[in-house]
Write a structure and sequence with these properties.
Blueprint: E1 13-15, E2 58-65, E3 85-87, E4 93-98, E5 103-108, E6 116-122, E7 132-139, E8 142-148, E9 158-164, E10 170-175, E11 180-185, E12 191-196, E13 221-226, E14 236-241, H1 251-254, E15 268-271, E16 277-282, E17 287-292, E18 297-303, E19 306-312, E20 324-330, E21 336-338, E22 343-347, E23 359-363, E24 368-371, H2 375-382, E25 398-406, E26 409-416, E27 421-426, E28 434-440, E29 445-451, E30 456-461, E31 473-479, H3 481-484, E32 495-497, E33 511-516, E34 523-528, E35 536-541, E36 549-556, E37 558-559, E38 562-563, E39 568-573, E40 581-585, E41 594-598, E42 604-609, H4 612-615, E43 623-631, E44 634-641, E45 655-662, E46 668-674, E47 685-694, E48 697-704, E49 714-720, E50 731-733, E51 736-741, H5 743-747, E52 757-762, E53 767-772, E54 786-791
Parallel strand pairs: 1-19, 32-36, 46-50
Antiparallel strand pairs: 2-31, 3-4, 4-5, 5-6, 7-8, 8-9, 9-10, 11-12, 12-13, 13-14, 15-16, 16-17, 17-18, 19-20, 21-22, 22-23, 23-24, 25-26, 26-27, 27-28, 29-30, 30-31, 33-34, 34-35, 35-36, 37-38, 39-40, 40-41, 41-42, 43-44, 44-45, 45-46, 47-48, 48-49, 49-51, 52-53, 53-54
Signal peptide: 1-32
Domain Phytase-like: 507-775
Pfam families: choice_anch_I, Phytase-like
């Protein structure tokens, strides 16, 4: 690594896990001073989670899937994304880039709670069919679209299209002389600045280097666009080069201590509030440049520095272990935004050598004012958005960042590309940002757009995979009391975790089971499924109306003194003195399904396999729920199997099995639950939970496997058991009745409707509760929805 100027304080930031314990009401990281000592972060202790008051909170109003905005004749299943967005000056029309579809799209947010697709404009009609939009801004009645037209990395090219917003016709096209990335506009609309990246080829190996290394000519530069009036014909560009004609870096670049100064690749640009200076991130170079807009002179270039982290998960082993450390790595900032004329913030995504899982505030001297350290990693773990598949790479991967003033408060909005959230910070004191809220998004939030004139925040997400039911969206949030009534319930997060006693949050994900605590009416029990290993059970403390439930205790399951791993899909907390739990563990094959009894401290005490004839008829869809009852006849367990057996036919076809197991005798009795018919091609219907309502009534979750706007069935049904058991070797049919249609409750969150409604129970307090499985943030948005459905006697009489 290159050494920075001696006057810079960015060479090493050490973030300790204990010192950076995450509080959802205040993030107080440690910042290294020039001597390497640390400023104390107050008490260094987490405080109980508190949702912001409605007047100061951001409320999710709508989530609009942009595949609904494709042109006629385009298959809605084709990839279509919403990457970078801008808004008309009246705040009513969002314009987003769709690089996958080679178009820009328009969304009408006049009613922010009901966004309406307003069509798109194909770049194929303006240039070449492969032209990709990379960024957009609005100037008066025009949309400025920067377009990558490169046919190869070695021959980069691009243009700026000026599109009339009203007629959606191009009124001018300006050649940019290279491949553009980001565009930013001055507050007075007199200038725009374009980062001309001329990006590297990740599969090219330069002489003496490794694949994807720099340098790779030609290097990048910046285009200044002067906008002297309302007529685009009068607009002109000025090139700001980082190198001389012969490719030699300018002295201000060569002396900056950045990576590979002979091949600068500008990534993102922002213009300061007074309109005098642009800040440009040089992501691959781990650098930051400042440009005077009047003269077009590069006034300073400096390294973004390195960060070393402790208290983070670094090993992809299925567990959430926030005890690892990372050696110092370059920040490699992506997005950048000014806070005021002397300070700006960077999203430290990383690219090829770095990525430090956080964001940083710099001053214009290049000094670090503040750094987030490991706190966003802790935030993800605390709200169930930890992405285990990314821990050996760039973790939460902070990519998008914006600053905006709403309701008289200046905020930073920081987006996690891999954990699908936006963290909100109050910047009233830029030297000590105050975390205020976390907002759930769909996958890959990149465009983060404050709309101050309407107290709105728009987030555009770039990840789109129809086969997984994960689609790109434009989400709309509103700040303040005016939006509180139209906001969804429950608000995110609906589950958070307390500290583990060692300065980190209890890690959790994929809650696929739910049980009442027989002795405590303010407590439920839940567990992560196979998305997390080894297996843990969680105490879920009910916090009351409007507040998230709190995972306040974790019980590790062990067998023979070693950590045990089960795919826990069902859980029942046993009553009585011995207590403990029965787990329903789903197997990869029928024979792998089992009931598992564990003690109150998590020690496996007994395994019960399914009968051989039942196991033989199961594929990968096995045990999905377990509940129990203790009466004068002893202890009995009820087990729900997700789908029908392959061996079932005749009157049992189209049904799923529910079994009753007599713990004392080991006898099984079987019943047939009639499944609804799928309503969409490729869908299936199955059971996800079973709960005892009374001595002869069971409640089960029946659901489809669809999500988002396609979701059609998420229900809790009841069945009455027959007065007489079926004869040995036979299966008794059941009749079902809908008790709770949960789909409207899931849609009421105004987010992406979750697929896996998997946990349901009736608490000791007499209320009904449900929870969704977030699939471990794997091919899913990762959002967990915990629902208090109200008094159970409202549904079960």
């Amino acid at each position: 690594m290159h050494t920075q100027k001696p006057s810079r304080r960015t060479s090493a930031f050490i973030a300790t896990g204990a010192a950076l314990a995450l509080s959802l009401t205040a993030l107080v990281p440690v910042v290294a001073n020039e001597l390497g000592q640390h400023r104390k972060p107050g008490a260094g202790q987490s405080t109980p989670y508190t949702q912001p008051k409605p007047g100061a909170a951001f409320h999710r109003l709508a989530t609009y899937p942009v595949f609904g905005n494709v042109p006629a004749g385009v298959d809605p299943a084709d990839e279509t994304v919403a990457e970078i967005s801008t808004v008309s000056e009246d705040g009513n029309t969002v314009i987003y880039t769709d690089a996958a579809g080679k178009r820009i799209g328009f969304v009408d947010i006049t009613d922010p709670a009901n966004p309406r697709g307003a069509g798109s404009l194909s770049l194929a009609e303006l240039g070449n069919a492969e032209d990709e939009p990379t960024s957009v801004v609005v100037v008066g009645g025009y949309v400025l679209v920067v377009v990558n037209t490169s046919e190869s990395y070695a021959d980069p090219s691009g243009r700026l299209d000026v599109v009339d917003l009203a007629t959606r016709t191009r009124v001018r096209s300006i050649d940019l002389g290279g491949q553009p990335d980001s565009i930013s506009l001055s507050k007075d609309r007199s200038r725009a600045v374009i980062a001309m990246e001329n990006e590297r080829d990740e599969e090219f190996t330069p002489e003496g280097g490794d694949e994807g290394d720099l340098p790779q000519a030609p290097g990048g530069f910046v285009q200044l666009l002067d906008l002297p009036g309302a007529d685009p014909a009068a607009w002109s560009t000025r090139k700001v080069a980082f190198a001389a004609e012969d490719g030699t870096p300018l002295p201000v670049v060569a002396d900056a201590g950045i990576d590979t100064p002979q091949d600068v690749e500008p990534e993102y640009v922002s213009v300061n509030p007074s309109g005098t200076t642009a800040v440009v991130t040089l992501q691959e170079n781990n650098g930051i440049a400042l440009i005077d807009l009047a003269s077009g002179e590069i006034t300073d270039v400096f390294s973004a520095g390195e960060v070393a982290l402790t208290g983070v998960d670094t090993v992809e082993d299925g567990d959430i272990t926030l005890t690892g450390s990372l050696e110092a790595a370059p920040r490699e900032p992506d997005s950048v935004a000014w806070i005021d004329d002397t300070r700006f913030a960077t999203a430290n995504e990383g690219d090829w050598k770095g990525g430090t899982r956080g964001w940083t505030i710099f001053d214009t001297d290049g000094d670090v004012v503040w750094d987030a350290g490991n706190t966003l990693e802790h935030l993800a773990a605390r709200v169930g958005l930890h992405n285990e598949g990314r821990v050996e790479k760039k973790g939460v991967e902070i990519e998008g960042l914006s600053v905006g003033e709403l309701g008289g408060v200046r905020y930073a909005f920081v987006g996690s590309e891999r954990s699908n959230f936006v963290a909100v910070y109050d910047l009233s004191d830029p030297a000590s940002p105050r975390f205020t809220q976390v907002l759930a998004t769909t996958n890959g939030p990149e465009g983060i757009l404050p709309v101050p004139q309407r107290d709105l925040l728009v987030v555009s997400s770039e990840e789109d995979a129809a086969k997984d039911g994960v689609r790109a969206t434009v989400s709309v949030f509103g700040r303040g009391d005016a939006f509180a009534r139209s906001a969804g319930t429950p608000r995110f997060p609906s589950v958070v975790s307390a500290d583990d006693g060692a300065g980190a949050p209890i890690g959790w994900t994929a809650l696929g089971a739910l049980s009442a605590d027989p002795r405590d009416e303010r407590r439920l029990w839940t567990a992560s499924d196979a998305a997390r290993t080894p297996t843990s059970l969680y105490s879920l403390r009910l916090a009351g109306k409007g507040r998230p439930a709190v995972i306040d205790r974790e019980i590790a399951v062990t067998e023979g003194g070693a950590p045990a791993s089960f795919d826990v899909e069902g859980l029942w907390a046993r009553p009585g003195r011995t207590g403990g739990f029965w787990l329903g563990s789903e197997g990869a094959t029928g024979a792998g399904n089992a009931l598992v009894r564990v003690s109150a401290d998590g020690v496996v005490q007994e395994r019960v396999a399914l009968p051989a004839d039942v196991a033989a008829g199961l594929g990968k869809w096995g045990i999905e729920g377990v509940a129990g009852v203790v009466d004068r006849k002893g202890e009995h367990l009820f087990v729900a199997l997700q789908r029908g057996l392959t061996t079932d036919a005749g009157g049992l076809g189209g049904s799923a099995r529910i079994g009753r197991y007599d713990v004392a005798t080991g006898a099984w009795t079987w019943f047939a639950y009639p499944l609804s018919a799928p309503t969409a091609s490729g869908d299936w219907i199955g059971l996800s939970e079973v709960t005892v309502v009374d001595r002869d009534t069971l409640a089960v979750i029946e659901r489809d496997k669809l999500n988002g706007p396609a979701a059609a069935l998420k229900g809790v049904y009841t069945v009455n058991l027959p007065k007489r058991d079926p004869a040995a070797g036979t299966v008794a049919p059941l009749r079902k009745q809908l008790a709770i249609d949960v789909l409207p409750r899931l849609r009421a969150t105004n987010g992406w409707t979750q697929e896996k409604l998997e946990g349901f129970t009736i608490g000791t307090d007499g209320r009904a509760y449900a929870v969704t499985d977030n699939d471990g943030v794997d091919d899913a948005t990762g959002e967990t929805v915990f629902l208090d459905l109200g008094p159970a006697d409202r549904y079960f009489r």
